[in-house]
Amino acid sequence: EAKSSGRGQVCYFNNAMRKRLKQQADIENDLQHGIKNNEFALYYQPIFSLNTGAIVGFEALVRWFHPKNGLVSPDTFIQIAEQTGQIIELDLHLLTLAAAQLKRWKDQGQPPIRVTVNVSSRHFASLEFVDTIRELYQRYELHSGSLCLEITESGLIANLALATKIIHGLASLGVKLYLDDFGTGYSALGYLHQLPIHVLKIDKSFIDQLTEKENPLVDAILKLAQSLNLTVVAEGIEQQTQWQLLKQKGCQFGQGFIVSQPLPADQAMAFVFSYSENIGKI
Ligand code: C2E
Ligand code: MG
Ligand code: MG
Ligand code: MG
């Protein structure tokens, strides 16, 4: 932020700002190397039915094993990658990793499972993105609908006409679109029923508040989803009371530490089996 506004301006940096700029510049450099050196991995967090407990899919979440800094969380580099534009290359790299993993599971004879990959809304500015996804489906022989996308609402409305074309193109490939962090951005509700979006993900911040007292916003989002015929996934469920409340209110799916944290691929698949054996017992 300071970087883009600071160019050519008189600007007084304090030490904290200087340190942050240095960190950002380092991340920018390291990202480039990191992609080449294969330092990024996807972890997989189960998405489950609130009614049956069955695991219905995974969200793929990036982890960076930085050679010097160790495990780096996406919150520290996704935003920078967005700003520098490196997110395009990083997302494509991660989409490829997810597709390769789906192929590996398929070759192992695992039952088909859906993986959602987070992508920047920057991809929704070029029709090429549809070709990219089509090629991934072909190259990795993916089951229809097994690789789906999560996107936040903010970027979509910048160029709604083009984004709409792209989303229709993706939908025709069987790719379902998940609207991530729903409720936290500038919701432009007008476009929701025009776009072939399939799933709303209620942001964790709303679920956090859903403990002893009710949260009218969660009710409102669930009603909205119902009337638009959208599926809902509640993010960040940590407590049994949240699960029960959401289930009572008609929310179909959930995700959160109550079932599992994001796991490396092999552990995630193993978890599905051990967990489903225990569903009847909890
Ligand atoms: P998100 O897509 O909303 O992902 C959900 C985040 O909530 C993940 O954090 C997940 O680990 C965390 N989470 C899930 N359940 C719980 C819970 O019960 N309790 C708590 N405390 N946290 C929970 P993570 O992995 O750190 O990812 C943060 C954000 O970074 C993601 O938010 C997403 O916006 C972005 N991101 C992650 N991976 C990718 C990626 O591959 N590409 C892009 N473009 N963005 C990504
Ligand atoms: Mg997400
Ligand atoms: Mg989310
Ligand atoms: Mg979130």
TrEMBL record:
Domain EAL: from-to ranges: 24-276
Record protein name field: Diguanylate phosphodiesterase
Residues of the full protein shown: 511 to 792 of 792
Molecular function terms from GO: cyclic-guanylate-specific phosphodiesterase activity
Species: Pseudoalteromonas peptidolytica F12-50-A1
